[in-house]
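Structure in, sequence out. Go:
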């Protein structure tokens, strides 16, 4: 094999001058390495496993698989076999295949053809004559249980597959041959998918999260000259907002169409625990959390979730006092004629509003959470004959529109056609796939018939540029607690009681003076349980004992590289 490669290399070097004309940005060494690497790769068969929707016929699925394979053969000498499995049987089949591949690896067995006469045991490439008598590459037969690239989803399943050793760590690939993916997939998704700084899958690129908009009564805003200071409304407790709400009250409107509880959620990232599940955190009002100083900077890449006693923050107390003033002034209520209200939606929402009635400003940007990051993933089997070459299939599904649309919609003018506007019109239901599961959604032709507007991807790209990465993405208590670790549930009960009593006390106040007195009382409170709750090292050194939820989160942040723990300096060599 080495002699065959050397002969091929010498022949290709003669063409190097021509090659460099079309690749002028490459150095001679880069070009030679590319020729050698490409020539040295044997033909290979890889399997892509995908769930199919009801109605997809075997005949249509095979036609698409063959068409995809023609592309990968010409590009990479890869015979791609797509194995379609019904959604109700998909995970059972996928996991059985991965387990079988792992069993083969553990037993030093091969499910692909090898040449034991070669030092590296790679299969000697063969050729056969095609129907026209022309020599063509012969590809090995893919094993029935082979799964080199596959769709899957869910955070717990992601961690399970990593722990099983089934997923290929892609860190090196994303800085090498598959780097193109980083230009096509949201950096938030690629950051959020990392475990211990390593990505083990690629999230299918899609529109992240939703905005929270404040809708502002245009008639009142224009009458009292607020239209020139709309950005002030992004701070929901600003003096501008307070004045506007007072003017709405004068005009006979419901100032705020909503509740005090809803309004409080705009002030901070709260740290609270569900009353029904001691291992699920919520965003309900809490005395612990992180005050939102800047709605643009709430990503974990800007720093992890903070556990502060919010009443020790003068900025938060000032904002909370303003909300209390709104409450005492009876600004909260329900009605169709209001000053402001809050709505959630995507980047297209402002363009759909009645602009004669409302102005809109963003008060919370889209947040990439666990659902955004882990719901639809493409993974590569760690047991694949060549994980690095399997990554090329993942790269195509994220960067190549022709390849990605072929897997999604089937054969053009057979399964679907494109309208003059470039939209999909299905000709039949013989090949049906879920657009969220088959790769980068922004590369798919818009399928208006299935609810995707013609301009959906343009809005989605804008939205992803403004999104932030949740400070709890990739974190759950269930996944990040060892079997012998427990949270101090009595501590959770105590804190829930403190939180609920504080909110009830604020609502029970009849004057702002009474509110100020209550705040002072809570600020003076030196509760030991409170201190444990916000202490990120509570029981940190004894994992067999109970600990605070803040400790579990802190450990996760350290493990995933969001917190750098400096190692103690080594003592100088006294003998040296």
């Amino acid at each position: 094999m080495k002699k065959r490669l050397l002969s091929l290399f010498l022949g290709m070097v003669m063409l190097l001058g021509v090659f460099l004309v079309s690749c002028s940005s490459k150095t001679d060494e880069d070009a030679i390495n590319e020729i050698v690497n490409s020539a040295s790769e044997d033909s290979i068969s890889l399997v892509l496993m995908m769930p199919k929707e009801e109605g997809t016929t075997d005949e249509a699925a095979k036609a698409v698989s063959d068409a995809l394979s023609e592309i990968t053969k010409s590009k990479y000498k890869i015979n791609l076999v797509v194995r379609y499995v019904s959604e109700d049987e998909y995970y059972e089949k996928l996991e059985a295949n991965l387990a079988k591949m792992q069993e083969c690896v553990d037993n030093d067995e091969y499910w692909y053809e090898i040449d034991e006469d070669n030092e590296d045991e790679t299969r000697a490439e063969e050729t056969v004559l095609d129907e026209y008598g022309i020599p063509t590459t012969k590809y090995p037969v893919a094993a029935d249980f082979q799964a080199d690239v596959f769709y899957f989803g869910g955070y717990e399943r992601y961690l399970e597959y990593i722990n099983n050793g089934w997923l290929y760590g892609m860190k090196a690939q994303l800085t090498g041959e598959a780097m193109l993916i980083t230009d096509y997939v949201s950096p938030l998704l690629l950051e959020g998918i990392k475990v211990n700084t390593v990505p083990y899958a690629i999230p299918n690129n899609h529109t992240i999260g939703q905005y929270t908009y404040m809708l502002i009564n245009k008639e009142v805003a224009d009458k009292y000259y607020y239209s020139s200071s709309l950005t002030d409304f992004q701070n929901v407790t600003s003096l501008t907002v307070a004045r506007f709400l007072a003017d709405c009250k004068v005009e006979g409107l419901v100032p705020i169409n909503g509740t005090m509880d809803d309004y409080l959620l705009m002030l901070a990232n709260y740290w609270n625990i569900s009353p029904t599940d001691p291992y699920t955190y919520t965003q309900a009002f809490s005395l612990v959390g992180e005050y939102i100083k800047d709605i643009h900077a709430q990503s974990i890449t800007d720093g992890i979730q903070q556990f502060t006693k919010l009443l020790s923050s003068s900025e938060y107390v000032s904002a909370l006092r303003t909300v209390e003033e709104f409450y005492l002034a009876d600004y909260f209520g329900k009605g169709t004629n209001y000053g402001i209200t809050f709505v959630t939606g995507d980047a297209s929402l402002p363009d759909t509003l009645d602009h004669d009635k409302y102005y809109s400003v963003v008060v919370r940007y889209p947040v990439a959470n666990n659902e955004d990051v882990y719901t639809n993933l493409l993974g590569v089997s760690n047991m694949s004959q060549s994980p690095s070459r399997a990554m090329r299939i993942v790269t195509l599904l994220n960067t190549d529109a022709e390849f990605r649309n072929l897997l999604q919609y089937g054969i053009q003018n057979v399964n679907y056609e494109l309208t003059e506007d470039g939209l999909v019109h299905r000709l039949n239901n013989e090949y049906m796939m879920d657009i969220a599961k088959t790769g980068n959604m922004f590369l798919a032709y818009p399928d208006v018939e299935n609810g995707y507007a013609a301009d959906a991807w343009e809005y989605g790209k804008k939205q992803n540029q403004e999104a932030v990465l949740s400070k709890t993405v990739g974190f759950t208590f269930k996944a990040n607690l060892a079997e012998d670790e427990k949270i101090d549930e009595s501590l959770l009960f105590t804190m829930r009681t403190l939180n609920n009593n504080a909110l009830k006390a604020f609502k029970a106040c009849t004057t702002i003076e009474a509110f100020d007195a209550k705040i002072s009382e809570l600020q003076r409170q030196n509760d030991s349980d409170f201190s444990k709750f916000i202490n990120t090292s509570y029981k940190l050194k004894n994992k067999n004992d109970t600990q605070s939820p803040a400790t579990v989160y802190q450990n996760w942040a350290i493990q995933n590289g969001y917190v750098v723990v400096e190692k103690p300096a080594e003592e100088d060599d006294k003998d040296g």
